[in-house]
Amino acid sequence: MDFDKKQLWKEILVEASEKVKKSHILTWFKDTAILSIEDNKVLIGVPTIFTRDWLKSRYAHLLLDLFKAHISEVLEISFEISQALSNSDDNRKVDIKKVWKDTKDNDKKPRRNMERREVRLVEGITSKLLNPKYTLENFVVGPENRLSHAACSAVAEHPGGAYNPLFVYGGVGLGKTHLLQAIGNEILGDNPDAIVVYIPSEKFINEIVEAIGKRHTQEFRSKYRKVDCLIVDDVQFLAHKETTQVEFFHTFNELFEANKQIILSSDRPPKELIQLHDRLRSRFEMGMIVDVQFPGYETRLAILQQKCREHQVLLSPEVLEFIAYNVRDSIRELEGILMQAIAQSQLEGRVPTLKSVADLMAKLNSSYEKNGFNGYEYPISSRQQAANIRPRNIDDVIDVVSAYFRIPRTDLLSEARKKEIMMPRQICMYLIRKELNFSFESIGKEFGGKNHTTVMHACDKIIKQLKREERLVLDINAIKKELGL
Ligand code: ADP
Ligand code: MG
Question: Residue 356 maps to which CATH number?
Fold first, then answer.
């Protein structure tokens, strides 16, 4: 087949951008090329394992369809890693910036817009627009928030039922707003005509104050009587607002008596809202009270994975584990760091590494900085990454190789002669010799008192194979990178 592969790839990427976010084109198709089109098969070259896995899982179908539209004989698409594509002078790849120019910007507008928007409901009632990204389904449930999630689901299913009012409390950034809005979304999903008002308490206070000022309190009450579900977020701000509390009390009663659902959130439980009138506080305590707690490591990791799915990004497990492990204040912060890492990677067109995320966290939070990368704690599986900031030793090499091939250390150091263990063991020896300059004798000793000729033989074998096997080159490069070599 005779055609301009580069031109074809460019056209396909421009077409793909109709379906794929522009920023994703930039991130994931940078340094890619059509390597060949033969025997009905397209071979796409990609620079890294990550890109390959990502493109394969997300875009193989789309790309195949696009190829078929150009060349009907194409039946299959596959991806091959070609590190050379990362070199700026590799002229097989298309200039992604040119593709970028030709693509329409279909990225979503920032969410913030949505958060500010309001909707007018019947007769002068306004609600903040519910953010559709908050659902009960995408709220990750762990042991720490199982009860609150269940209570919210029950309320969403039977608004105005047994759990009225529903009072959700917990620290900042732990998911209260997410849950509250998710209930609202769910109720509206089941019944689009329902009048669901979501209002942050500050805004609610303003409305009440305005009504009082205009002597419109009767109207205010009758207006709210029409609401099917009233969600007031962060009611702790009602503290000290005496007249507002009185008015809220009346509104609350009207709704409650009409079996309308009321949902409230606060940073503390009702009994600790001491600046609230007793009678209002006791109203808050009448229904179901649940708390959201800071989730443990496992749940945090699951939340990160969920957010990656939502944003259609793929990050290495080590990076996610690292973030999950080190962020210990709020989910908002957890998400913030993830988003920054993604943004940074999209700008720079590379996949975030442990080091880049650690740097980012240090930049965002000066308390991390004091410790530097060294001060971070890591889950075991990421331990090897720590090696990046100090001189490497034999243990580091063994740890990284062990993690890379998922073979226990003890196996690497054993006498086992299975091929799956021999090869990684030889790689260890080769790296320790070549990168750390240990003598053959001393390496032999570390590996259970082996003769120095065994070590020499292992190193020679790897050197020979490196000339023939691209896979081995990739493995060794990846291990060296992990070691910061
Ligand atoms: P709060 O209102 O308690 O201050 P938010 O509801 O604004 O917290 O939550 C902060 C961010 O954390 C939101 O983007 C939310 O989606 C996310 N979040 C919190 N908990 C979870 C969870 N369990 N699963 C998924 N996302 C969560
Ligand atoms: Mg909130």
Answer: 1.10.8.60
